[in-house]
């Protein structure tokens, strides 16, 4: 029989167990924090009807999707978790209770060109609150982001906050209402293009030198939150745009409420340069960066939108949400050394009979350890001691419980510490508490 | 703008949050038990190269798969977690440590005809130990199954155990070696077809009346494990098949070791009728049934196989594993009423300011509750009290924390129990311990 070379398509991440354990640790943190804040889980099919999923999408999306015919169905794999959410909310409208707070952690698929750290299959971790107009919910998003990244323990980070009404209102005051979407898209790129390109692209849109200068000055306003809020309020006084005034009011309230949550001022900032490319944001927008690794770009973004599901229902559904692209983030965190592969097994200890005569005792001791909350692997292969210890060593176990004939006679076990090499004989009955003490630090 | 009707393809399950919370509770139990026994997580891509995934499959599989071309790739969605495991193990052979114990919880896709309780997209929860010849590992499978279903709390269940070597050895002793696969497939159907059909199908294979009688007598041997083991050993003495003798020895050892694990004899049985349709099993096989709902069929099955990845590598990889088809099981458990929808939110309590003047205090109190481990939802919509309480009621919250102007002055909160209707005023500082006591029973 000829062998088939085992391999996977490019752009699809696949981890070894040690990496998967770390990846899952991050997923669990995200899930725990989302639930702590009362977001309820949902899941949607990996495949949706193309006619339903692609109502809103333009040409670029169409090129990137995995779409095919099966039987009488034209199907597309979900390419984000937002369009399925809109469909879900509209479809189950009468069964849901609003405000609807959901989280969704799942894989999405985009057939873009694969490159380092950009995947065709990746996990997204989204929260959204649908059917809420409360600004307190806008303030909750940075709090949730903060709780997650604090527990990830990946260094200092900052949540950048802006408001689309401020930007659009300011464009309006410059007389640029009719091209505000295009101006926004250029502002969104400001950190990725040179100052010259920035000017050129705005000129190409028809902005005058004065308009460009005023825009540049505006989005470069910086300082502490209170300094910025102060400046915004001053501009507000002379600004003819009601949208601008409303945005300034909102961002002020968001800042105040974030402080009410008790978040340190060092963890978030008002950043007038944050635009977010996507069309549908209408209020607060968020981006999150690692202070020591700005090159990674935003690791958690989102914003407030006016109407989630307008393609599917006449019900007006405003909301706000953020998303973590976990596969890309994990890749980057490994790359910068912020993730250490510390565990190679779900087990914390391994129990090994020395000969087949000690399997019964080993099975029982392993079960007892599990009942005290210690994840325990049983190793019953018929190998010599050297091979057994080599296995434990390669698997990265610190503690090995060895059970031999002599030990059974004296109701003891042999404990070997693979890091120090030391061996201890210990009464079987004392094993649980000894290991609990060593492992559950 | 014309609206698109929100809907999903048939055969794709989608839950409301209350169902999803219960489904996830089961997933978490499975994951916790798998990790308790030292199985490490892996995940594989949803899409594999068709050339790699379909090496082993026959015509039936080809019809059921979701396969398509994207760019230069011929891709197929995974239809089980076993073929991807074989590919994974062969591909990462040099980086893995054997015996390799992995668990995998993930969605698979089969484009079969959708019907009630049979899905095109469903979750499987698999464990396998690859590269192990130890019979103690065979015994571990029923232990793991048992731990999971005990925690599911879905009534009494039984793990049925048999060994392919016993069946094949017995067929051999009847002179049926050359058609043992076909005989096996008919034995596998015995509970689904009539006694007449059973006889007819065997006759059609060419079995004599005497062979059929002896086969029927054999697979109907019953009684306690010790009675069956005794009978098997007696048959073994006069049986010319070494395979049979080996199977009897193995099943005896598996039963002994399961008892060593401390599992009650009522939770497992030797059942010579268990065959398992799939070709690749070669030793111990498992099926699990609910005692009060045999009509559901097996809820967890698996077995030992000789060589997992023979299509991908020359390395000999024996192993043993079991799989829970969780989506179908969940559907059936809901149907028989074994699953109750008890929670409608990930939050255990909701905090509501009565007016906008109490948002600051509410935010702080919600954060304090979270810091004590209580999942807390904050409700800050500007509604009147009636609407606020209606929301809490529909969401199924037992306790609502209301914060009003009066309460702030006296440093108190109002606690409303939605089940009894009673209202309590309580000092803010005592709220944490009061709720912890009520909620974390």
Could you describe the 3D structure shown?
The first copy, chain A, has 441 residues and is an alpha+beta fold. The first copy, chain A, has three domains: 12-153 and 292-343, Bira Bifunctional Protein, Domain 2 (BirA Bifunctional Protein, domain 2, 2-Layer Sandwich), CATH 3.30.930; 156-284, BirA Bifunctional Protein, domain 2; 349-439, 3-Layer(aba) Sandwich (Rossmann fold). Chain A has 16 helices and 16 strands. In chain A, strands 1-5-6-11-10-9-7-8 form an eight-stranded mixed beta sheet. In chain A, strands 13-12-14-15-16 form a five-stranded mixed beta sheet, sandwiched between helices. In chain A, helix 1 packs antiparallel against helix 5 (135-152), helix 5 (135-152) crosses helix 11 and helix 10 (225-238) runs antiparallel to helix 11. The first copy, chain A, is elongated, with a radius of gyration of 28 Å. At the A-B interface, helix 1, strand 1, strand 2, strand 3 and strand 4 of A face helix 1, strand 1, strand 2, strand 3 and strand 4 of B.
């Amino acid at each position: 029989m000829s062998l088939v070379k085992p391999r996977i398509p490019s752009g699809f991440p696949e981890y070894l167990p040690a990496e998967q354990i770390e990846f899952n640790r991050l997923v669990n943190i995200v899930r725990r924090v989302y639930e702590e804040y009362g977001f309820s889980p949902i899941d949607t099919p990996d495949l949706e009807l193309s006619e339903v999923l692609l109502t809103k999408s333009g040409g670029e999306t169409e090129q990137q999707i995995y779409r095919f015919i099966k039987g009488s169905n034209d199907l597309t794999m979900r390419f984000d978790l937002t369009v399925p959410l809109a469909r879900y909310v509209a479809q189950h409208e009468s069964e849901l209770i609003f405000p609807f707070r959901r989280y969704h952690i799942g894989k999405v698929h985009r057939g873009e060109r694969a490159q380092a750290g950009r995947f065709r299959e990746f996990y997204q971790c989204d929260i959204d609150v649908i059917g809420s107009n409360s600004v307190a919910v806008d303030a909750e998003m940075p709090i949730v982001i903060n709780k997650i990244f604090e527990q990830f323990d990946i260094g200092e980070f900052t949540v950048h906050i802006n408001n689309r009404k401020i930007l659009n209102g300011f464009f309006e005051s410059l007389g640029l209402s009719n091209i505000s979407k295009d101006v926004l898209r250029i502002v969104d790129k400001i950190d990725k293009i040179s100052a010259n390109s920035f000017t050129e692209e705005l000129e190409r849109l028809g902005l005058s030198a004065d308009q460009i200068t005023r825009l540049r000055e505006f989005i470069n306003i910086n300082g502490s939150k209170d300094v910025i809020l102060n400046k915004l309020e001053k501009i507000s006084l002379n600004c003819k745009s009601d949208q601008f005034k409303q945005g300034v009011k909102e961002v002020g309230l968001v800042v105040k409420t974030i402080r009410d949550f008790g978040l340190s001022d060092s963890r978030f900032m008002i950043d007038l340069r944050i635009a977010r490319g996507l069309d549908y944001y209408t209020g607060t927008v968020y981006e999150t960066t690692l202070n020591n690794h700005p090159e990674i770009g935003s690791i958690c973004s989102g914003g407030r939108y006016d109407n989630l599901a307008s393609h599917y229902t006449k019900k007006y559904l405003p909301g706000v949400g953020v998303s973590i692209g976990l596969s890309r983030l994990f890749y980057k965190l490994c790359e910068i050394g912020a993730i250490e592969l510390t565990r190679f097994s779900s087990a914390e200890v391994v129990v090994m009979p020395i000969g087949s005569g000690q399997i019964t005792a080993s099975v029982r001791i392993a079960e007892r350890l599990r009942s005290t909350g210690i994840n325990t692997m049983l190793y019953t292969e018929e190998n010599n001691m050297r091979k057994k210890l080599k296995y434990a060593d390669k698997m990265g176990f610190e503690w090995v419980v060895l059970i031999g004939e002599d030990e059974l006679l004296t109701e003891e076990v042999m404990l070997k510490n693979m890091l120090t090499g030391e061996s201890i004989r210990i009464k079987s009955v004392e094993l649980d508490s000894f290991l609990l003490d060593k492992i559950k630090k």
